């Protein structure tokens, strides 16, 4: 019951670029029974495949301080508003999550959601970051519907597109197939950056990487290096 819902690597310094990764883990605490088979925990519905490897490399190799989740989004989706119906998903990509039917919503918010977001806010406040990175991955194929997802990387934003506009151009210059608010819109799904970036006037990059590109160490290293390079150049462009 005392395990932390997050891990932090590094310490943000004044004006740093800082990263957060809401869906890094597929861990389910031992006292929570989701009522699903273990094979579902290896799917995209449980976590953003490959992102933990990317953010770990951002932190260790490129010295970007990272705050990332240590709990599966099937337990609680940390990248939702607190009052969102999808905060504790009862279904995901066509799969029923029976253990979430009638779950103790307030208990999970108090145990996982609030500590995760409050700790991140406290961690970055003294540093006044120049840019926040939100790292996610998306699956090229949904089980519940046929959908063409040709992008290698997408940049999401809500109202503040300052950083995203630069990054979209820079990823394209690297030869990437880049999506503008794809494969879904940040107008609808931008909770963490709305809370920690837009609400405080901090520019941000909400980056979605196609998960087959970062399912292995080589891809994780490549994308961490590219994100570090582009984030640095975006920060300079914004100065």
TrEMBL record:
Signal peptide start-end: none
Keyword Iron-sulfur applies: no
Gene Ontology molecular-function annotations: hydrolase activity
SUPFAM superfamilies assigned to the protein according to its UniProt record, in alphabetical order: Zn-dependent exopeptidases
One Pfam family in the UniProt entry: FGase
Record InterPro entries: N-FG_amidohydro (IPR007709), UCP029730 (IPR011227)
Protein's UniProt keywords contain Kinase: no
Keywords assigned: Hydrolase
Protein name in UniProt: N-formylglutamate amidohydrolase
Phylogenetic placement of the source organism: Bacteria, Pseudomonadati, Pseudomonadota, Alphaproteobacteria, Sphingomonadales
